[in-house]
Amino acid sequence: MKVSSVIATVLARMLTPVLEFIVGQAGSIGDAPPDGDLNGSNFTYPWPIKTYRFTSQLQELEMAFMDVAPTVEPNGRVAVCLHGKNFCGPTWETTARNLAGEGYRVILPDQVGFCKSSKPKSYQYTLQQLAYNTKNLLQTLEVENVTVVGHSLGGMTAIRFGLMFPGIIERLALVNPIGLEDWKALGVPYRGVDNLYVSESASNYTSIREYEQFTYYVGQWDDSYDVWVNMLVNIYQGSQASTFAFDQALVTDMALSAPVVYEFTMLQPRTLLLIGEKDNTALGKQWSPPDVQGKLGHYDVLGKQAAAAIPNADLIEFPDLGHAPQIQDPHRFHEALLGWLSN
After folding, report:
1. CB contact at 8 A, 135 and 145
2. How far is CA 265 from CA 7, 203, 261, 311, 312, in A?
3. What is the pTM of this model?
């Protein structure tokens, strides 16, 4: 055998696993079963579920997502809506229907560790990783430019996405994003992942509703909010309950450890902040001493500060609404969002 043939054979054997790994990272799109349990959730989604299968951190994972087609003449634009920690893709249903009614194609992903996506037993959660996974999903769907809408933790992720991939973002809309302040710098004590896991594992209907009623809905409650509480309970008590609780502990640790507030001046996309001023969300507030609690979660101030720091930002405030204005007053919220997007 010639030396060149031997070298070629050796190189082929060396490169094959590398190429297979690269192909795995590129990912593939498939259809998910319409009913039954998917990664620990059997909650019914409003549109067919697809899965993005890919390799991340040496693990085979999948992100569940919905791909909603325009219901009128397509405008050629794509919106991706990023959910918060206590939310899933379906909580964007009304927003997706409004956007589709304006000609948008709308992508609604569940992030890794959430909802119907994979629940890895160990994963290095970072905002960069979540943003990177989302970018790769869009790339696999051959989406080149996108309007990003993010709420709560999804808003914090959207900010990181905007810092990492400004060239593909047409507009950036942030709905009561967390991360408008640095909680640990304001005095929130560190709580280890083991303790966070214990708290997450104890979540039930009563604890989730009490938190959401006080934080999201300004002490009010409507029976229509129950569906979102039950969506979470379904996962906390589902077939992957323990792993889900651990993933959520890791996510909380991630958000507490990775402030974005110091980078607002570097955000390039045109940005809209949609802020319910009665929101008082602040990670770690519940285990902080009273003097620290009093400093945290003042969205009537935080929204204005963020809008002043972000170079190309607009601010729309809802003085009487809380953490989830898109759920609490969908008509007013979507009128504001769509009006800004059409400007």
Report:
1. no
2. 52, 37, 9, 6, 9
3. 0.92
